[in-house]
């Protein structure tokens, strides 16, 4: 199978067979992020004979596209369901892309928070919201056997990204799910640091990137919202302070939004948690993908 | 659940819930290896109510106990089958343990080759054969809800280890399997370097650690041999030169040993290959474990 035929901007870096499908890694020159970006894709066997729907996976702090690819065991289920997995990096990368001046893990490289930065020096490269919503799916759907039937999921910072992007673009995603998401970043330390840095001190600008605010502002228009599934481990070191799951639960109840938010006893914040429940998430998405 | 109660030599370093069971990481002072060693264990949910049988997994060059734990997706199947996974490191470790003088990946740390070294300076610590055959199972069975019903499996150098240890101790293992094993190390570059270093220049001493030689020397006594399953990817960069699969196939045919040796089209040497077929291997072992 050839990929991105005629597109000199995309390079195939790695290709491995897994569960009868193909685990692929590409590098491309991103216009949105003004740097070269890697992303991984799993194509199920069904992609050999036609376009397949896709689950976009957004990873958490410090991750790249490789963590989910190697640790979640998602390819087995995706191969069974005939669903592609599209796995971007978590921030712009490379020389010239500024990082946290102290090298902190929760800002800068590996910590793009899926927002469009407005503040210097971040605004030039840190446009992850537009990259995930527009540039990456346009690229994938132009050069791979992947249709525009999309679902979105993610973990922690990526769970925040999946909820925010899915809620703000409900016409583009048929379902949303998240593991251990940061559901109310305007009220936790991770979110406050990231949003103050990328978006500036005017907290009104932060609200467009807060899942709980977005759900609240939709009020009772629950028919507009894609089906949502959230799993949260109750042995998670970052729960409740950074994740604030109860805020989402309250808004979900108040607005009758219909999100399914579950606690999983004894599970922590790691990929072992994701591996344990990714099958349920992918089957949830597949049942909603056209 | 308490582990290794009353044994001050064993420290629990990490514990995570996965697929309803427990992924555990321990450190202990090894008498055999004369150093502290880490090992990982997956206990399925069934271990809460009684002893469970175990599959021992031997990893390949450069690996620790963590590669298989995080990348193979084996816990899902082991939880379903009620089988423990016992995952040792691939060599002695720590200060005072000598490494390859050039820091090569294929000798010394991460490359113990599951032999008992006889040559200085390796002999003091590099006794991985005895560690895997005796010390580790004795420790595990004394302090965890794991029975002495054992199977053994591994990848590459660890596939070599599983075949050699299983063939030489057929009373201790009810089945053997391997992914991409080095089946004839006395005739490949990896094996010649390792065996010359650990065992000296007398090649007659190498033969006790060569799966093809061991199978050949059993001749037609195939009733002594545990059931064997081998999977080899035909897109593996190390096939055929380092792995020499055809040698094992020829001996298996000649001696009617009954090993099932399969080629898997398009798969390489990576953990994506292992992940794709670990379910079949674990079900094979479970069907043979008492």
Automatic annotation (TrEMBL), chains A, B:
Its top-level enzyme class, in one word, is hydrolase
Give one GO term, molecular function aspect. Answer: carboxylic ester hydrolase activity
Q: Which terms are listed as keywords in the entry?
A: Hydrolase, Serine esterase
Q: Name one GO biological process term.
A: formaldehyde catabolic process
EC numbers, comma separated: 3.1.2.12
Q: Which reaction does it catalyse?
A: S-formylglutathione + H2O = formate + glutathione + H(+)
The similarity annotation says: Belongs to the esterase D family.
Q: What is the role of this chain?
A: Serine hydrolase involved in the detoxification of formaldehyde.
Q: Kindly give the NCBIfam families that the UniProt entry links to this protein.
A: fghA_ester_D
In Swiss-Prot or TrEMBL terms, this protein is called: S-formylglutathione hydrolase
Organism expressing this protein natively: Aliidiomarina shirensis
| Gene name of the encoded protein | fghA
